Each structure stands twice: as structure tokens, then as C-alpha cells.
UniProtKB/TrEMBL annotation:
Name of the protein in question: 2-dehydropantoate 2-reductase
SUPFAM superfamilies attached to this UniProt entry: 6-phosphogluconate dehydrogenase C-terminal domain-like, NAD(P)-binding Rossmann-fold domains
Catalytic activity field: (R)-pantoate + NAD(+) = 2-dehydropantoate + NADH + H(+); (R)-pantoate + NADP(+) = 2-dehydropantoate + NADPH + H(+)
Metabolic or biological pathway: Cofactor biosynthesis; coenzyme A biosynthesis
Alphabetical list of Gene3D superfamilies matching this protein: N-(1-d-carboxylethyl)-l-norvaline Dehydrogenase, domain 2 (1.10.1040.10), NAD(P)-binding Rossmann-like Domain (3.40.50.720)
GN (gene name): apbA
Length: 297
């Protein structure tokens, strides 16, 4: 089976190294500037040590299974570069909401699933990443025909030694992770603190709970049924990733665009449509956009 991984950042380098080192036929699709460095191999350090030599390409080759591991705002352009064959399965692994819908709007029906990853991977340099937390990848599609074919992706991940699970309700899985990301990512990006430090400051802990409570009201209005307590789950992720620097903190530190639109921004947008006020998320979204503006000017 021909597997491609699109996006040679933190997650894509990790997944391609794991898939390729298990003997599977893997192409890592990267930016042109990284082709040479990645040609020397990809390396994972930290909780796992792996070195692998996937094929490297600057454009997606014909593939049976494609993992898209780019930031949410790049999913549209990455999808436009994919040529799907009738049976090609595309799994878009991302935080936040709206990424798989964006890919499906470009690639059409019958191809797209979403993945929710609970890994914690830090990008060190092209071809080198550090794994600091690893649990499972949750897979699912809102299209029943695609859902039936997800075993292919699950088996590829398991063959690579990665835990994977197919959920019958991918939207609930995305919201469960979203509750943690909307609390942790912008607060750490604004304060410069590690994830766990939010729990050490009562005012920040209370703010985190209020942000998540608003999102929980929005998700209830949309009929999302999760199996967890949203605030408790966000606090658990803070404890489990105590010393992590969140991806949004890493983005603002490097002067990069953040995923705020797919996280708190999405909660505000859905809240407005459902008539649920989201004042904490509105404020947080505005402040992060202010930081992005500072970097872009
Ligand atoms: N890192 C982590 O631990 C986790 C991340 N996630 C989520 O996974 C997604 C990916 O995150 P992450 O790996 O950290 O992101 P990174 O920014 O580290 O990596 C994305 C990479 O994809 C590249 N890219 C973007 N568009 C294309 C394209 N069309 N073709 C080829 N390469 C492209 C980017 O290049 P450039 O920089 O030039 O734009 C970058 O190298 C995000 O939604 C994130 O929230 C989820 C769980 C954990
Ligand atoms: C789980 C968490 C918050 C870990 O830092 C994450 O997903 C991120 O940083 O984007």
C-alpha cells in the first residue's frame, strides 16, 4: 500500500518515521526547502527513538492512504495538491474544528476522514522531532462509506506500533480535544507559561474553566454528545502535559500564525450562529489576533 504523509513538521515527521521504520511504503511530502535535509532521514527522540528513510517529495504522489498533518489554515492548500484515485483515503489529523470539512469540500465525497491525535511532538529542525507524550490516534469520518474503510488506516498505524481507535462519532472526539486546546493553548500563548502552570494560579484556572464552560454550552446546543466532563478533561490534559509548551505558545514564540480561528474562534463563530454568548472566547480570540498582528507588521 502506498502511504503519503503531507507536512514535515512535528506530527508529520513523527508519523512518517514510525510508518516507514515498520517497513511500509511511505512518502513524506514537504516544502521544497526541506527536501535535501529530509533526504538524509527522519529521526524521533524522546519517549521513542526511531530513524527512518521514507521517500521525500515536494508534491503528493499517487497514494492509497494519505495522512495530512499540516496546520488547520494550510489544509485547503494541501488538499488542492492531492490527486485522489477512486479508493484513496485521506485522513486529516488536526486540532480544532473544520479541517476535514475543508478537505472534503475540495476532494469531494468518499475520501476524507479526520484524525484526533493525543501525541505531544516538538519540532526541533527539519527531519528531527522530540516525542514528549504519546497515547492514541482517534479516527472517524462523518461519511458512512469512508467510515467503513477506516480499518486500512488503523492497521497501518498499528503496524507502525502506534495506538489507533476508530470512533463512531468523530465530531464528539474532536470536541473532547477542543475543550482542552481552547483553554490551554491561548492562555499559555498569552502568558508564556507551561500547560500545568495554569492550575497553579487560581485566576487562570477559573478563566480556563469559564472558556470551556462556554464551549460546552455551544456543543450542547449543536447536539454534540461527549462522554467526558469538559472542564475536568481540560484540567486532566493540563496535568498530563504539565511541562509542555503548547503548540500555540511555540507558534507565537516563533512569530508564526496560530490556529486560533479553528479553536476559540470557531467556538465564537458557532456560538453566534446558535445564539449562545461566548464573551471569554471572544476576548481570548481578539488578544491572540493582536499578537499575530504584532508579528505580521
Ligand atoms: N505537534 C503536536 O504535538 C500536535 C499537533 N496537532 C495538530 O496537528 C496539526 C499539525 O501540527 P504540527 O505538526 O505541530 O504543525 P507544524 O507547523 O509543525 O507542521 C506543519 C508542516 O506542514 C508544512 N506544510 C504546510 N502546508 C504544506 C503543503 N501543502 N505541502 C507540504 N508541506 C506543508 C509546514 O510548512 P511551513 O512551516 O512552511 O508552513 C510545516 O512544515 C495541527 O492542527 C496541530 O494542532 C495535534 C496533536 C499534537
Ligand atoms: C494537548 C496540547 C495542549 C499539549 O500541549 C496540545 O494539543 C497543543 O499543544 O496543541
Amino acid at each position: 500500500m502506498r502511504i503519503s504523509v503531507i507536512g514535515a513538521g512535528a506530527l508529520g515527521t513523527f508519523y512518517s518515521a514510525m510508518l516507514s521504520s515498520s517497513g511500509q511504503d511511505v512518502t513524506l511530502v514537504c516544502r521544497e526547502r526541506d527536501v535535501e535535509a529530509l533526504g538524509r532521514g527522519v529521526h524521533v527522540t524522546g519517549l521513542l527513538e526511531r530513524t527512518a528513510h521514507p521517500r521525500i517529495a515536494a508534491r503528493p504522489p499517487p497514494s492509497d492512504l494519505i495522512f495530512v498533518t499540516v496546520k488547520t489554515y494550510d489544509i485547503g492548500s494541501a488538499a488542492r495538491g492531492i490527486h485522489v484515485e477512486p479508493d484513496t483515503l485521506v485522513v486529516v489529523i488536526h486540532n480544532g474544528l473544520g479541517g476535514d470539512e475543508m478537505a472534503a469540500s475540495i476532494l469531494g465525497k468518499g475520501h476524507v476522514a479526520a484524525g484526533v491525535s493525543y501525541s505531544g511532538v516538538t519540532f526541533l529542525e527539519p527531519g528531527k522531532v522530540r516525542l514528549s507524550g504519546y497515547t492514541e490516534t482517534v479516527l472517524g469520518s462523518v461519511e458512512p462509506e469512508v467510515q467503513k474503510r477506516l480499518d486500512v488506516a488503523k492497521e497501518a498505524l498499528e503496524k507502525a506500533g502506534l495506538m489507533a481507535r476508530i470512533t463512531p462519532d468523530i465530531r464528539a472526539a474532536q470536541w473532547e480535544k477542543l475543550y482542552a486546546n481552547i483553554a490551554i493553548n491561548p492562555i499559555t500563548a498569552l502568558t508564556g507559561l507551561n500547560n500545568g502552570a495554569i492550575l497553579e494560579i487560581p485566576e487562570l484556572e477559573a478563566l480556563a474553566a469559564e472558556i470551556v464552560d462556554e464551549a460546552s454550552m455551544v456543543s450542547k446546543a449543536l447536539g454534540i454528545k461527549t462522554s467526558i466532563d469538559p472542564v475536568e478533561n481540560a484540567f486532566k490534559v493540563m496535568r498530563d502535559t504539565y511541562n509542555n509548551r503548547s503548540s500555540m505558545l511555540q507558534d507565537v514564540t516563533r512569530g508564526k500564525r496560530t490556529e486560533i480561528d479553528a479553536l476559540n474562534g470557531k467556538v465564537c463563530e458557532l456560538g453566534r450562529a446558535a445564539g449562545i454568548p461566548t464573551p471569554r472566547n471572544d476576548t481570548i480570540t481578539a488578544l491572540i489576533k493582536g499578537i499575530e498582528k504584532r508579528h505580521s507588521s
